[in-house]
Design a protein that fits this description.
Strand order of the largest sheet: 8-11-12-15-16-17-18-19
Largest sheet: 8 strands, antiparallel, barrel
Order of helices and strands: HEEEEEEEHEEEHEEEEEEEEE
CATH architecture of the largest domain: Beta Barrel
Structural class: mainly beta
Distance between the termini: 108 Å
Amino acid sequence: MKNIKYIIGIFLAASFFVGCEEETYEFGDLDAPTNLVINADVIGLSAENPNGDGSGEVNVTVNAQNAITYKIGFNKLVDYGAVSYSTLPSGTISKKFTDPGLNTYRISVIAYGKGGISTNLTKDITVQIDYEPNPEIVTALTNDDSKTWVIDKSVSQHFGVDDWTKTEYTSSWWYGAGPAEKEDCCSCFYTTTFTFSLNSAGIYSLVVDAPEGAFTKTGALAGGLPGIPASGDEGCYSEYTGGSSSFNLVPSGSAISADASTKTAIKLEGSDTFIGYGATQDEYEILEINPNYMFLRVRGTETGNAWYLKLIPVQ
């Protein structure tokens, strides 16, 4: 009898362990996406306008067999380097390029299949952008020759941060600096000057003079400014003393409505210059400008941030 009970016990235990075996799942075949195609429709392209109608607008569609999702990035070909990608789940996107003149851009796409297996493809397109900024903006910014600006530390909210994705302007920011708030920690913020020039050939240039260094975050968040350390707190960094670059006045790429912006932006070339705060990208939207005041909005190097800057001419 004892042996029968023993055998029954072994059978029940075995049944328990079999019932508790971990379930296994299979992805099936992990095939990389194939036949990846990028279609780029340059708006207004015709025999008379082989590079578009001058608006800079392009509709992009990507598709591939066995693809679950896509990522896409754009680079101006002369600046081609590391690509900043964004997710493109639907496979379609409308892109508005803003650099004036005739420029070639590289579209880079990654198609992802099961298990994250991917296929890459690039396509180059040439786009014509025709844009003439309001001459009143040009005069206010450059005095039609040369004009030097500095951060206006005398007013509240001369520096602030808020949500980049907002489509309407509001001064209820996440943070807004009080008058001269950065004087004790970061006086370079107020002593750095920014000289905007327009020469007889119609070329715009910016000269940054930073006798006490650049006010910025560090590492990758410094936006590529030369000499900034790979790590450290936000502050003044004397390794950067200034720089110069060309810039263009371009249609603003932000979603802020026209009643709260000039819809014109200062687009800096290269990484040797910045305006006000180093931890920003290169397109500074001009919300307001007159001969005595300039109010800028710029995307931060930290995802999701929009920085605000108020400047006045150097007297």
